[in-house]
């Protein structure tokens, strides 16, 4: 049984890696996310609600609410060929947003693993 679980884990890991190689979405640890946005002019997007955004957000982030009717039209204002860094509270909405952006033609999408909750833990 243990061998089967190990084999399953290896196969699942391989499939997951292959899936990520086939798309434009890269999940970044909080440390890597901070290094890539720190001091740079990037397209940094917070996909939480305006209320959540007002409570706290990463400096220079633009708020585009995942639940907003204007979600796609707001993202269409951005440069699809430039990297987009995004986050939400815990990672679910930013992951769903990243999938939408990929379908919209964005080529470099960086998603903060664990959202702002994880980001703030490492400060």
UniProtKB/TrEMBL annotation:
<dbReference type="InterPro" id="IPR050229">
    <property type="entry name" value="GlpE_sulfurtransferase"/>
</dbReference>
<dbReference type="InterPro" id="IPR001763">
    <property type="entry name" value="Rhodanese-like_dom"/>
</dbReference>
<protein>
    <submittedName>
        <fullName>Rhodanese-like domain-containing protein</fullName>
    </submittedName>
</protein>
<dbReference type="InterPro" id="IPR036873">
    <property type="entry name" value="Rhodanese-like_dom_sf"/>
</dbReference>
<dbReference type="Pfam" id="PF00581">
    <property type="entry name" value="Rhodanese"/>
</dbReference>
<feature type="domain" description="Rhodanese">
    <location>
        <begin position="38"/>
        <end position="121"/>
    </location>
</feature>
């Amino acid at each position: 049984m243990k061998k089967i679980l190990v084999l399953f884990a290896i196969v699942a890991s391989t499939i997951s890696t292959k899936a990520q190689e086939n798309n434009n979405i890269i999940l970044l640890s909080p440390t890597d996310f901070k290094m890539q946005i720190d001091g740079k002019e990037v397209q940094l997007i917070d996909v939480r609600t305006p209320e959540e955004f007002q409570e706290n957000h990463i400096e220079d982030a633009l708020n585009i609410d995942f639940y907003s009717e204007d979600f796609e039209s707001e993202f269409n204002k951005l440069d699809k060929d430039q990297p987009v860094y995004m986050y939400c509270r815990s990672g679910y909405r930013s992951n769903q947003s990243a999938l939408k952006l990929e379908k919209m033609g964005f080529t470099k999408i960086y998603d903060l693993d664990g959202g702002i909750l994880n980001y703030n833990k490492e400060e």
